[in-house]
Amino acid sequence: MKTTALLSLALALAAAGARGQTGNVPDATGGASATVLPASPYEVVSLDANSRTWQWETYETLPNGEVHTNTHSYQELGSGLNYKSPTSGQWLSAQPTIEVFAGGAVARQCQHTIIFANNINTAGSIDEQAVDGIRLRSTVMGLMYSDATTGQAVQIAQVQDSGGELVADDEVLYPNAFEGVSADVLYKNRIDGMEQDIVLKAQLPDPKEYGMNPASTYLGVFTEVYNPTMPVLQDLPTADPDVPADQAISWGSTFLGRGKAFSLGNETNSVEVIKRFNATDGRYFLLEKVRYQDAEAALSELPRQASNVKPMRGLASRDFKFPPAPATKSAARPLRLAMGQVPGKGYVLDYTTLSTAYTNFTFQGDTTFFLSGTLSLSGVSNVFEGGCVIKYTNGASINFASGGAAVFTSQQFHPVVFTARDDNAVGAAISGSTGSPSGYYANPALDFQTGNTSPLSCFRMSYAKTGIISQGSSIAVNNAQFVACQGGIAVVSGALTINNALFLNLATNLYVLSGSAVVNNATFANDGYMLLPTNGSPIYLTNCILANVTNVAGMAGSYNGFYQSPEFGSQCVTNQFSPFQRVGAGSCYLTNGSVFFQAGTASVGPGVLAFLTNRTTHPPLVCSNLSFSVATNFSPQAQRDASSTPDLGWHYDPLDWAFSGVQVYSNVTFSAGTAVGWFELPGSGGLGLGLAIYDKVVLSFNGTASQPCTLARYSTVQEGGDGLWTTLGYLAGVVPESLSGGYSMNATNAALIKVNFTRHALLADGLNHYREYNALSQVVAQNSEFWSGYVGSYWDDLYGTNCLFDRVKVSVQGSNPCQYWLRNCTMHGGSLTLDKFTGTWPVWIEECAFDGTTLAVGDNSGGNTNITYCDFNAFLTNAS
Q1: pLDDT tens for residues 224-233?
Q2: Cβ pair 829, 878 in contact under 8 A
Q3: 778 in helix, strand or coil?
């Protein structure tokens, strides 16, 4: 419980924060800030088949005039990003360029190679060889109608002679490629595979002309594959028992992506294409089909067939026979250049071959990743560690091949963040970033062909065209935020379970084609559609909030709250005013007087109440640009929700207090269980810090094993996207400063940070937990955890006992005498840099474990173990 004095202080601080007082944190000479020098250009420092590491430097002028270099990096990922030069053996950036030669055209500046024949009407007109040596020779053969119910089928078009034309650097067009209908075939080379588009340019014959029922007819394309390595096939769950099952089809590292049919220029409104691999009489065919009625409206907008196009006639039969393969022949002319002659109006049926980049890849919690295209993953253990930041360019995606799955090891205060290339508020800034996200980027952010067996937990997705697509089995989403996306989650078949989630400013939240969906304690705010029209059962919501949601068709539930949204279900609760208050970058804390507090039921899914017990709907109290001159105690004030009648809607990880640019001249203590956030504001000299503690101040985090304290940057909790708290500095959550000489101060005057049972949370490239600015930094940590980010800098005494440093970069270096002591600690990944610029200072590391940690430890003690003593330590290197 807070004391009366603390409550009065809290109210005063909150009022001051609301007034937006400003001021600069002084440096050692009383100036406003350190000198900022221009950063170096971005450059690629390493690359391999599917990645590039980009690096650049920033330069920091310390108050004593020394200039130090800070190195920054991010990892660009994409399937087929680079290829090896056949002459030099060096990795080069892959290019989808297609080159014309006498026998046709070839793409050879990728990991795969493709040869395009002059004439599409020849056996093996498309010859693709993957990086693992598997060769796929194919020829598109024709179009057909089929009926999955009756088993009848009929061919309506067959391939005919058509000379290829290079219509773009990466596209080959075979115009008027079919007898019986007016249609082209367009091939697009990509660095990660190839796309085949059948472009229908005129209306098709009515299925009734072949004795078929349009309601149950499928329009299909069949492509013959010659002497292939047999693919691995897996039937995917079907959304409708009357619909043929789609298949996951893969050959080694190559697999077929999700096919779609759409009108040219309107790919957004696409329908799913079902694909099957068929073996008949020693021949092999890829069959792709779409329900005729799903395409009928778009097809009717095409011109009628020209009078010189003679449709193929005949009645549908159960005894359908594929036509004979074409002979091997050449066109009368070589493949020619016809740049810009791409099809105009048309309806497209496509499929794409994709290459798998990695099996069981780990997105490390200390790294920013940039997806510049499709990244295809296989394996059941693709790990997403808390703290990693994954940014997407427009249209990029993480695609899980058949059987591929994701494992989220993120946790409270340490989420995975999926966002836009242009989002500079989290992670490293990507080369070319505007810093202002606009529109939608990832499409989708995560694409599962066969579902995911492990829950997707503790993450945030922002600015995605679609967040998650699961074509196959069930999917569970826990403690997640979807912000400013066009679409949230789409499940083609199977069950969807959502526990504790925020959907903010989405056009469409959910799409569940069939199966069931259950949502507990979610907030849907400022959204368009709750659910796209589906064939499935109603989605059942419990303890949810719908605020400014325009369409709730397909919803059912109980104990839900509504504000300016149509009501449904039972036990409805209506708020007459906006139920939310915005604090910093969090827009959906419940406001005072809301009827949504304690309005829920405990009858929710297993484990849901446990999620809420340590979370809150109450905001932090904000302290910014203030000074503390008397001893101050802080304790938890954002009420955790352990009630049997929980609050409605999304529950945040708790932040009790949020600090920015606060100067501390007397002792400060945080009692057990207190969660402290920090942020940067304009006007703090560009430094970026939460608390600046001065001479002889003792700042204590007094956590316990059952009630740990937390020090977290706001972005590990709040969803952002509202333009607040986006300023980036370069300092830390807590920064010691000095009034008695700066870097020349007497070390006995240094402030002290005492930490016990405390969690320290940052995202990748998320500044420092603790570091000095112009004074000695002393940190004594016990029984605590540090996640991502940095600890230390140029004049630091660090003492750690029984601590975990998970993907943390620890640095103690400089000309001033430092100290570094560790006992019974573990460093997982990250780095340890100990660099004595001049003189000697003590280093003691004993009974510690280093798991894959980059070590750069300089020792100029001359072997004196009274100065440097490291013994009884364990080192695991070159391991995952």
Answers
A1: 999 888 998 8
A2: no
A3: strand
Between CA 551 and CA 556 the distance in angstroms is 13
DSSP 742: G
3-state secondary structure of 518: strand
19 Cβ neighbours under 8 A, 6+ residues apart? none
- Cβ atoms of 347 and 200 closer than 8 Å: yes
Q: Is the Cα dihedral 261, 263, 264, 266 positive or negative?
A: negative
Query: Is the separation of the CB atoms in 841 and 819 below 8 Å?
Result: yes
Round to whole Å and give the CA distance between 116 and 119.
Answer: 8
Q: What's the token pair of residue 582? A: 């915005």
The strand pair at 868-871 and 283-291 is best described as unpaired
Query: Can you give 231-273 as a three-state secondary structure string?
Result: CEEEECCCCCCCCCCCEEEEECCEEECCEEEEECCEEEEEEEE
- Rounded distance, CA 648 to CA 160, Å? 63
Name the token pair of 834. Answer: 């100990």
Listed as own residue / partner, the contacts of 10-19 with beta carbons closer than 8 Å and 24 or more positions apart are: 10/621, 10/637, 13/621, 13/622, 13/623, 13/626, 14/621, 14/622, 14/623, 16/623, 16/624, 16/625, 16/626, 17/621, 17/622, 17/623, 17/624, 17/626, 18/622
Task: Please tell me the pTM assigned to this model.
Answer: 0.91
Separation in Å, CA 714 to CA 523, 534, 636, 660, 682: 20, 38, 16, 11, 16
Is residue 135 within 8 Å of residue 259, measured between CB atoms? Answer: no
C-beta separation of 517 from 539 below 8 A: yes
Q: Which residues lie below 8 Å from residue 507, measured CB to CB, with a gap of 6+?
A: 485, 486, 487, 527, 528, 529
Half-sphere exposure of 128 (CA within 13 A, CB side): 30
Q: How far apart are CA 399 and CA 408, in angstroms?
A: 16
- First-to-final CA distance of the chain: 45
With a cut of 50, say whether residue 858 has pLDDT above it. yes
Given a contact cutoff of 8 angstroms between Cβ atoms, the answer to whether 772 and 794 are in contact is yes
Is the backbone of residue 207 left (phi > 0), alpha (psi -120 to 50) or beta? alpha
Report whether 436 contacts 457 (CB < 8 A).
Answer: no
CB 364 within 8 A of CB 829: yes
Q: Which of 520, 519, 412 is nearest to 458 (CA)?
A: 412
Full 3-state SS string of 543-584: CCEEECCCECCCEEEECCEEECCCCCCECCEECCCCCEEEEC
Taking the CA atoms of 23, 27, 31 and 33 in sequence, report the sign of the dihedral they define.
Answer: negative
Q: What are phi and psi of 297, to 5 degrees?
A: -60, -45
User: Residues near 514 by Cβ (< 8 Å), separated by ≥ 6?
Assistant: 239, 240, 492, 493, 534, 535, 536
Residue type present at position 745: M
Q: ∠ CA(734), CA(738), CA(744), 5° rounding? A: 125
Total residues found in the chain within this entry: 880
Low-confidence winner among 241-250, 393-402, 427-436, 714-723 (lowest mean pLDDT): 241-250
Q: Which residue has the tokens 């808390």?
A: 386
**Statement: residue 452 has pLDDT above 80:** no
3-class secondary-structure state, position 207: helix
CA 694 to each of CA 182, 228, 425: distance values in angstroms, whole numbers, following the listed order:
79, 72, 29
Give the per-residue pLDDT at 686: 58
CA-based nearest residue to 352, from 198, 188, 189, 195: 195
Is 32 a residue whose pLDDT tops 50? no
CA 595 to the chain's CA centroid: 35
Tell me: the pLDDT tens digits for 303-322? 988 777 777 878 878 888 88
Contacts of 555-563 spanning 24+ positions with Cβ under 8 A:
555/530, 555/531, 557/519, 558/601, 559/599, 559/600, 559/601, 559/648, 560/648, 561/595, 561/596, 561/599, 561/648, 561/649
User: What pLDDT is attached to residue 30?
Assistant: 31
pLDDT of amino acid 24: 31
Q: Which helix (H) or strand (E) holds 71?
A: strand 67-77
Structure tokens belonging to residue 449: 């062909």
